[in-house]
Amino acid sequence: MAVKSTSGEPLLSNGSFDHGFSKSASLAKLLLKFLMWVLFITWAAAIYFFSTEFVHNLFSKWIKLTEGTIFGITGSIFLGFSAPILIISFLAFIYVAAFSSDDFGKKKQKFPRFRLWTFPVLVDGPFGVVSAAEFIGITLFIVYVVWAITSYIIQASNMVSGFPFPSKEKSYFMLEIIGLRLGSIGLFCMVFLFLPVARGSILLRLIDIPFEHATKYHVWLGHLTMALFTLHGLCYVISWSLQGHLRREMLDWKDIGVANFPGVISLSAGLLMWVTSLQPVRKQFFELFFYTHQLYVIFVVFLALHVGDFIFSMCAGAVFLFILDRFLRFCQSRTKVDVISAGCRPCGTIELILSKPPNLCYNALSFIFVQVRELSWLQWHPFSVSSSPLDGKYHISVLIKVLGTWTGELRDLISNITEQPQNDSEPQPNRITACVEGPYGHESPYHLMYENLILVAGGIGISPFLAILSDIIHRISEGNLCLPKNILVVWAVKKSKEFSLLSAVDLRSISPSFLDKLHLDIQAFVTQESEPPLRVRLMRTLKFSSICVKNGSCMSSLVGTGNNFWAGTYVILSTLGFIVLFGLVEVYYIKRFGIFAWWYRGLLFTLCMIAGVVFVGGIVVFLWHRSEKRNSSYENLAVDDNKKSNISMCKEATLVDETSKVNLASFQTTRYGCRPDFQAIFTTFAEQMGPVDIGVIVCGPPGLQSSVAKECRSQNLRGKRSAAVFHFNSHSFDL
């Protein structure tokens, strides 16, 4: 309501108030972003130039200035190298919570907003498809490593040349100094190693990099870090071998200084993880890779014992953020989730529909991790969601193609249950014990940022695109904000029986009026059939069975991408709890009893990190869980009615007739015995649309990604603007 003066003129209109509020919000957003950038650049610059004499002198002055606190030198180093990344995380929660990312359609962008992230620079090579932003990051890391090693070698050479030792002794000393410096460089690289693998990390949400994209950064950094640590160890091994006391040095566990034997254990665990993570080994022996990668606990703990608390505090911030994420994932994954529907489609693909709380949000580019305890208590497998959030707020669905041992056993488990007699009145309890982590994914819905979309899928890669299409069609039908107007789906499959997956999108409840606002074209290519077989014509009349399994609960909302208030409180209070605990241990135990052993102080430091998360963070998680339960109690009646409806639906689904659905097949054109010609397809689409932005999303094997990325780059060089965004699919490549 406007406030008026005595003359009847408005003193403050709603429009002017809204404009002023919007201007203040924009200013606050800009200042917050500027503060985070300043912190990050300062922190990164300190690491980047740490090998220079100037930064080293500044660091020495910083130590002298701050080591008088109760935390001592460990606190000084932690404040300089780990605290900045934690402070950025705190500010990121404020930024994400206060400034929603749902402004994708408020104004039309002349050029793609994330050009550096979506423009492919390298499409072939050891790094796979690399965007411009990723290429810049790779270059900076290579320059840093080369610069730091060169700088340290020059410094070591100048220092050793002044010693009055024999040349042989100088060479031994030179090797050990170089090994020491390689270890310090590896320690700084380890800071970035743990950041990408925190699945619900607020930092990934801040820069809008989903976990499935960030895993390749972890792989790159893992190779770099382990190469540096291996060279670090080799330098010492060679030096000790030449001096004739290799065994004594390797088994040494001294109190003052670096303890060698814990370093040997840590490096051995790291080498096992590194070797089994190489592509040939991981592809052939995935379970071996998965189980040996759990040695990261040994790697981190014994690294802390090896270097002591004050050196370990250089990378402790990133490790602490990972521990926070891992504990929250542990809490979420304890919940046994109701399986609303589980069945094998006619093409052999498994469909799981899982129960979720209405307040757990996700978007069409999200994915979840699924565990089935009847198959394995340790294995978690990621799958893209195939449902849109607008399909229903009480469920989430995934499509799973049978490719390996785990998926084959899941199919057999479901098939065996469907063949057994069931009670028609109630679902069978505990026939499939499913647990879920997530959802994770893009913070911003990239598929809604372009008026013109090309979706390229290979096989089961169509799964996330079914969610995208359903989301867009629902938005248009309901009159919600939605930019896409022209969508081309390019789908390559081996056998035409996979076309039945299109029926997973149910359009019965959607008004056909969306056809006036959306032009949809699905071009399907069958590579291993020259003509449509008879069974494909009969596929739509086939029926498939499904089961319902009641485990007693829906998915837990305890996820880093969930409630921003509780997630932020969990991170901040856990951090404060860790700092307070370490302060108490420092004052009342370490100083009081004169604890001086480096390795023991490193162990205490690590235990304080874990205790801060488990005890203080655990209290926050408990309150968070209670809050979510209390909030959901107001909707219990709706949820119960929905579950009854879902159960009824599942019973009817045991004899589902696919012809009863209005599906996406009416938009499909099929070509047999050929592969898609991306140059012709992209050029034709660009010519039809004119000089516009074209968003390209691809989901499929690495070869398909490379082909699409190469054509996107070619289109850009020809002046046809396109943006390639690569979406994760668990069946196409390993994590």
Class by helix and strand content? alpha/beta
**Helical segment count:** 24
Sheet of most strands: 6 strands, parallel
Low-confidence stretches: 1-13, 636-661, 720-735
Q: Beta-strand level of the residues, as a percent range?
A: 5-15%
Count of strand segments = 18
**Spatial sequence of strands, sheet with the most strands:** 16-14-13-12-17-18
The helicity comes to 40-55%
**Distance between the amino and carboxyl termini:** 55 Å
User: What would the average pLDDT be, to the nearest integer?
Assistant: 82
Q: Could you tell me the radius of gyration in angstroms?
A: 28 Å
Specify the overall morphology.
globular
Compact overview of the structure:
The chain is α/β, with parallel strands linked by helices.
Structure description:
- This protein has 735 residues and is of the alpha/beta class.
- 53% of the residues lie in helices and 12% in strands.
- It contains 24 helices and 18 strands.
- A hairpin with a 5-residue loop joins strand 5 and strand 6.
- Helix 11 (260-276) runs antiparallel to helix 14.
- The protein is globular.
